[in-house]
Amino acid sequence: MGKKGNLSDFEHSMVVGARQAGLSIAETADLLGFSHRTISRVYREWSEKEKISSERQFPGQKCLVDARGQRRMARLVQADRKATVTQINTHYNQGMQKTISEHTTH
Q: What are the DSSP calls for 13-59, one per residue?
């Protein structure tokens, strides 16, 4: 259990997988041959990174079409299934305060 240097991505995955499967820190350390401190560090770093990524479900630009807009879009498409994107976009933007581009429609 001496110092081996940095763990590979595979070894990180093994630690996280064992902990996710319900093994304790001691059981994971015994199984994989790493120190308790290493197991704790790797799992803590992973859980902090996972927390940050799960908070950002929609990275980038905010969604321009809300639930009501999506329902309106669905009704427009159902009303005229052969309409082009340009036609659907024009109908959608009529009477809306916030207009959307054809790229958003597509």
A: HHHHHHHHTT--HHHHHHHHT--HHHHHHHHHHHHHHHHHHHH-SS-
Cα(101)–Cα(85) distance, rounded to whole angstroms? Answer: 10
Nearest CA-CA partner of 103 in 72, 61, 41: 61
Buried b (16+ CB within 10 A) or exposed e, 42-69: bbeebeeeeeeeeeeeeeeeeeeeeeeb
This prediction has a pTM of 0.47
Chain segment 67-106, per-residue pLDDT in tens = 888 888 888 888 888 888 888 888 888 877 777 777 776 6
Which residues, in sequence order, are CB contacts of 15 under 8 Å at separation 6+? 7, 28, 32, 34, 38, 39, 42, 43, 46
Find where tokens 């630009």 sit.
Answer: 61
Report the phi/psi class of residue 63: left, alpha or beta, with left for phi > 0 and alpha for psi in -120 to 50.
beta
Residue 101 phi, psi dihedral angles, 5° rounding: -85, 170
